Amino acid sequence: MIEYRKHLLDNGLTLITHEADDTPLATVNMLYNVGSRDEDPQHTGFAHLFEHLMFSGTQRFPDFDSVVNTLGGENNAFTNNDYTNYYITLPTDSLSTALALEADRLNNFVLTQEALEVQQDVVTDEYKQRFLNQPYGDMWLLLRSLCYTRYPYRWSPIGADIRHVGEATLQEVQAFHGRYYRPDNAILAVAAPLSHEEMLHRVEDVFEASLDTHATASRKFATEREYEAEPQQLQPRRLEVERDVPSDAIYLAWPMGDRWDPLFCASDLVSDVLSNGKSSRLYSKYIRSGQLVTEVDAYLSADAGPGLFIMSAKPRAGVDVETVVETLRKEARLLVDERVTEKEMKKALNKNAFDFSCTQYHASDRALSLCYYTWLGDTDLINRRSENYDTVTPEVLQRAASEIFRQESENLLIIRKK
Known about the structure:
By secondary structure, this protein is of the alpha+beta class. Helices cover 41% and strands 19% of the residues.
């Protein structure tokens, strides 16, 4: 059970405090309700660009990183399709400094032409290094554009075209910042070995905002905006490309429900049955035996909106790609045609619960999770997660597999070795 308290400040900022008595460190985690799906299709990559720009410094703190490093802390950020997240972890006696850094970045950020041009070059270089010069680096770029035709998950956070970032004007980028980087569009979690009252006091003092004692309704950030719906897929799609890669690679993807779908937990457990651990079906049949493939996996895209269920594999030398594709299809159909045993179901549940508990070991991880579940619209879901998964039966898992593994909604990406 993760104890927390939720507050709303009069500037609109949602605050969560977590008494983390198992660490001498404090974490400040700030989640902004903006991801790549909020971008204009002709101006993509802006959320990721701002992940970099927000480290450009302010008048008060011109070198953000050096302040954190001097205090013996660390800070970083990431952007995905749904939101952008920043965090600072440092000794607890420096918590007020961490809050001051985050507050100044929120309230006093000034974007200059010089800073924009620097980060445009940085992001363009990142695109070349991560997506063009790495084996299989453009897999997500190819797969998303194959699987989505309308919904704004059809491009990755780096953007649909890197020229959108490179050619962005200062006015366009400033408009994007003004639209999304506001206190009422953000969630702040503070995790430290301090009382809730002490953490709230420090936040109110640094952010110069008081507790809104009249606020009662919880925000549902993730569902507050409407996006263009993805049409139902009525026939399979296939894309083959050649790349300078060590071996062929196969990616089978099927559309699935969003994060609020009643079958989401069951869908997640389908992936666990297939590939979570050395006793999972795909590992025990094909990796342990040394047959067909050198790598195989099954996983969810983990987006909040309409997601993807993905199976991937790399054939062994001399093994035909089509043989591996059909093998993956057969394993998918097997979950549709036959229910898993109670023993296999229990094993998948136990492994899933163990993996989740490991991801919440550090207070910084819990701070991020509290922000994420608050963003979803239900902070306490973090504490009901195990209960929700435990309701999945072999019958429910089979129904989830039947909903996912439809022939007409299959998307096949093959990256062949040149």
